[in-house]
Amino acid sequence: MSITDVLSADDIAAALQECRDPDTFEPQKFFQTSGLSKMSASQVKDVFRFIDNDQSGYLDEEELKFFLQKFESGARELTESETKSLMAAADNDGDGKIGAEGMSTRVRSIKHSSSGSIHEGLGCEIKPMWLKISLS
After folding, report:
1. Is 5 annotated as a binding residue?
2. Which end of the chain is more exposed for a tag (fewer CB within 10 A), N or C?
3. Local confidence band at 119 (pLDDT 50, 70, 90 cut-offs)
């Protein structure tokens, strides 16, 4: 399996471009730009299996360090802080590893608005209410 069997090469390139420099990787933004957050649970799990180097069913910090390289072989390694951020974003039970179910749940929880902003949760978007105040 190639990652481009399930994700657009253009979306992957755009996601990698956004985090080209060290300490610029943001998991939620990457999930959105790459198209991962739009995928079905089974598709996210297919991508997870592709990323899981040792096929243990879990991703640990060592595997996460090479996360971007699974999308493009020449991509950079994640920094230690980025690796920890990605772990924190998808490690549902705090055991220091990410399972396929946890990854799928987290990736698919990212919602999109027409403005391009990212929303987490149940698909709700909170919009500011503008009040008109008239002075008499």
Report:
1. no
2. C
3. very low
